[in-house]
Amino acid sequence: MPPSERSGESRAGPSGASAYGRGRGRAAGDRGFVTAEAAVVLPVMALFTMALVWTLAAVAAKIQCVDAARAGARAAARSESPAAVEAAARSAAPRNARVTVRRTDDLWRVRVWAPAPGPDFPAVTLSAQAAALAEDSMGVPP
Asked: What is the pLDDT of residue 119?
């Protein structure tokens, strides 16, 4: 029996590391895996966070499109001028939005299109449409 085993000594060195690797029983080939895993996971998490932020910004822009279409339809229903209707819709719309106003029978229809905020890829166009009954059509017999 070797002298180190007789005296109760282990194969661990003065720092507590065993002869098979450092620390808590890891084999020498396992060193560096945490670094490799972090190198893979951190960019994936950053990409996921960027996608989440882009999605939230796109949802906020969609809500602005809906609000703009409703504001324009309300203004059109009150028989305001087409320029005032478009101005009401544009004031609530996101930047670079397009607004169309048209009347079909007794309904005013306002549609708002806007590009999604952020990078051009993916090219997403957000849109919303609202309709309101024209006030001048109320009370008219069919």
From this structure: 81
